[in-house]
Design brief:
Layout (H helix, E strand, L loop, with lengths): L2 H5 L2 H18 L11 H24 L4 H30 L2 H15 L3 H7 L17 H24 L3 H25 L1 H6 L5 H12 L3 H5 L1 H21 L12 H20 L8 H6 L2 H27 L5 H27 L2 H5 L1 H26 L5 H10 L3 H10 L12 E6 L2 E6 L35
Antiparallel strand pairs: 1-2
Helix pairs in contact: 2-3, 2-15, 3-7, 3-10, 3-13, 4-5, 4-15, 4-16, 4-18, 5-6, 5-18, 5-19, 6-7, 7-8, 8-10, 10-13, 12-13, 15-16
Length: about 475
């Protein structure tokens, strides 16, 4: 049996299913789970747990890290499916989106291809819960960008700690300090500047650090006291359930609230690790781990990455084509998401991840990964340029205004006769482009910048952060 097979944890696969189910349910507008967006935090903790466990084991065993091999594994695992979904989303957008939206969101695709869209969203002062987000088919790539940036920094931190003083205690201390500093600034900025707390990877590092510490903490106490392990598993699942059921878009998140799903995930991972080492099916049997290992959750867990990639573009485009989507329409969207995820998992994600030729040498994976990334960035940039190539001057003004950060557009709106919400305070006319309506002030384009109004543009009208339902579905 291979090492990877021996290390496989069904409870973690099931926990991935719980995480992606919460995110998908939230984005589909399931009001029963208003806090499903916390599923992303579960993914962060799991990533921190698994990556830290692997890196620490390599450092302890060899005294070094093979970074090229590490990044090659990450590239094989994450890059092909992510870029395929980006290209497919751009292709669908060429039919569904207006030229201005194609230009704007192609820039988002460009940053998503380079795993930097979280920084682009910060520049925009973009609110994940705002109305504009329902039209951005690439906004969900922010979490993948945060995760990739974590993969770049985390090995360096662990190697530095091991170099200063060999031993796991030094590494745990370094992780603890990094996590504490990250959490303090995250909690502070959540109330001061939420986009920074939400999207900036150093301010999410504490969630990865929590998983990392869980991977290194001894599990002997839980092995010796299986009842305690079962109690912690139930407590962890309860904490995640409480987050899903009670959190809302109006809550100051992440901040202190994110402690609830993070701590719940840590408890589940730690109790599950004790059960995995114990291996018994009697006194140490854990009902929560057994539930997480059920076949349906294992299937969803295997598809979780593809599900996360596909679900949001499907929801965004369906909402554009049918703004008042019925229950049957929602179910069709879910079926399409499952179908696309299954196909991409079996024909793209898994074959490339386990390709023997790519696994034989790190360069064989890294060189194509760099070429694919460059191709994705170039394709998105080219699509943005082509989308506005044939626009008239007035439409170009709208596209240029939409491409500015929200704070700049707010100032432009004020000088052009719009209030802070983007509503016109002077006489305006409507300009119809594609499937969207834009309000344009009746002033000279040479003296003022036009700003899109708030009606059906799909573009952020100002820097004001407003909360919104996950997506505007009807309840019929």
């Amino acid at each position: 049996m291979s090492a990877s097979a021996q290390d496989f944890r069904p409870d973690i696969e099931g926990l991935r299913a719980v995480a992606v189910a919460g995110v998908v349910a939230f984005h589909f507008g399931l009001t029963a789970l208003p806090g499903g967006f916390a599923g992303v935090d579960i993914f962060f903790v799991i990533s921190g747990y698994l990556i830290t466990r692997h890196l620490v084991a390599e450092i302890s065993g060899t005294g070094r890290l093979d970074l090229l091999r590490f990044y090659a594994r990450r590239a094989r695992r994450l890059l092909p499916a992510a870029l395929f979904v980006i290209v497919a989303t751009l292709a669908a957008g060429a039919v569904i989106l207006s030229p201005e939206e194609q230009a704007l969101y192609s820039k988002g695709a460009m940053f998503a291809s380079a795993y930097m869209i979280n920084l682009w969203l910060i520049r925009w002062s973009f609110d994940y819960f705002a109305n504009d987000a329902t039209s951005n088919p690439f906004i969900h790539y922010w979490s993948l960008s945060v995760e990739e940036q974590f993969y770049l920094a985390w090995p360096a931190l662990l190697m530095l700690a091991a170099w200063l003083k060999p031993g796991k205690r030094t590494i745990m201390l370094a992780i603890g300090i990094a996590g504490l500093v990250s959490f303090v600034f995250c909690a502070w900025l959540t109330s001061v500047s939420q986009p920074w707390a939400f999207y900036f990877s150093p301010l999410r590092a504490w969630e990865f650090a929590a998983g990392g510490l869980a991977s290194m903490a001894p599990a002997r106490l839980l092995q010796e006291r299986p009842r305690l392990g079962r109690a912690l598993s139930l407590a962890g699942l309860t904490m995640i359930g409480a987050a899903y059921l009670t959190f809302s878009e109006d809550a100051p998140f992440p901040g202190f609230l994110a402690l609830l799903p993070v701590a719940g995930t840590v408890l589940l991972l730690k109790a599950g690790a004790a059960g995995a080492r114990d291996g018994s099916r009697n006194s140490g049997w854990n009902c929560v781990n057994a539930a997480l290992a059920l076949p349906p959750l294992q299937w969803i867990g295997r598809l979780s990455y593809s599900l996360y990639l596909w679900h949001w573009p499907v929801i965004v485009y369906a909402g554009m084509l049918a703004p008042e989507l019925t229950l049957s329409g929602r179910l069709l969207c879910l079926a399409l998401t499952l179908a696309l995820s299954t196909l991409s998992y079996h024909f793209i994600e898994n074959p490339i991840r386990r390709n023997g030729w790519l696994m034989a040498n790190a360069a064989r994976a890294l060189v194509p990964a760099l070429l694919l990334t460059g191709t994705g960035v170039a394709a998105a940039h080219g699509n943005a340029r082509l989308a506005v190539h044939d626009l008239d001057p007035q439409q170009r003004i709208i596209a240029a205004s939409a491409a500015e950060p929200s704070t700049a557009r707010a100032k432009a709106s004020a000088t052009a006769g719009f209030d802070v919400g983007g509503y016109p305070t002077t006489t305006t006319k409507c300009l119809v482009t594609g499937s969207r309506i834009f309000h344009v002030p009746l002033k000279s384009a040479s003296t003022t910048k036009a700003s899109p109004g708030p009606t059906s543009t799909g573009l952020p009208p100002s820097g004001v952060m407003t909360m919104r339902p996950a997506i505007m579905w009807t309840n019929s």
